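Appendix B. Raw example, untouched.
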Amino acid sequence: MASALDYSETMTEVVVFNKERHIKYFLRCLKTFLPDLYTSNDSNRILLAYFTVAGLDLLGELHNRTTLEERQGYIEWIYHCQVPSGGFRGFTGTDFGPERRTPANEVWDPANVPSTFFALLILLTLGDDLSRVKRTECLQWLSRMQRENGSFGEVLGSDEKIEGGGDLRFCCFGAGTRYILRGTGEEDLVGDKDIDVDKLVAFIEACQTYDGGIGEAPFCESHSGHTYCAIGALTFLDRLSKNHKPIELLTPGAGPFESLVRWLVARQTSELGDDEDEGGDERGDSHDADGVENLSVTVGELSLDAKADQLPVIRPATKDSLRWAGFNGRCNKYADTCYSFWNTASLHMMDRLGLVDVTRNRRYLLEKTQHIVGGFGKGVGEPPDLLHSYFGLVSLAFQEEPGLECVDPALCSSYRTVQHLHSLPWWQKKA
């Protein structure tokens, strides 16, 4: 009798990557109005712009489907989001104009750390040379965004108070901005204050939990998104390092490294959330008209044997249920398109991508969350959105999907974009 793990028959089917539909999806997002559900994300418009522009770049069609004039217009819009004192705002809605901006009111129009990182990446993707970026001012502002515990905030408030979140997302964007703007030729930055790298590394290491994963802050639950941000930040720091001590989370054989690899690999799951029981309230007669459980009925059902008999039957894995295997972000959660990115990107930076079952991850993305109109949804049967659409493409790119550009896992951008970054003056080592 065939084993439940004998999948050979199910793997011969052709799974199609609908490249042209994805191109049309990203073009619609770039050149027409977004659905009204995006309205609440207006202040994060630079992030939405990044997913759109980088998505077309990853599909190899950014320069083929947009004109030089259009791309220049996008560049000008990004520079309109640059704050005079350094960094970028998330959208133009808070801009007073240079003639009205004063030291007293500039806290109402601040640069923020995530938008600065993504603004720089958009400019690089569009081929800009960053010559108009206030590089020195941005790096000085960035150093003021670091808290005493080594983490980064989001914006500077009144009296230069660091405000906003303090989790690993901001650490990653801060380290990434430093990576882009400092480069390897630091002669022109002598005397400028840098961030405290040792404190940042110590904060990140303190976020690793007992199970090997990494949480948003010390003593928090492990989460794949924050794990990616931690490994991304450390990768940026390591790429610019000069004779620093080894970072254990990036060192094969070290306990923190190996326990994190095990946790990341364990995130691949065949639990997709697509076969939940339908129907209304099944609580039966043990609840009264107000939905409050009847205590007397509950007390009468405290028999352990009776409780055990009522436990649901857990069905064994079958060939069909094991055909698809995406990734979740935390223990006991369903698969989600974006976690195919967060987990595989982390493993990629740790040089452990070979531990992923790429065949079943590909089937999950292309058969379960790839949408008929293009793009990817969050989960099975859900409509596409920009975040999940871009991260779905990137995860497939890691697996060398035909029709997609290669991607740097830390910058989450095409190698073409990274090569352009490394061609800039401050990345050229002096002879």
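End of appendix B.
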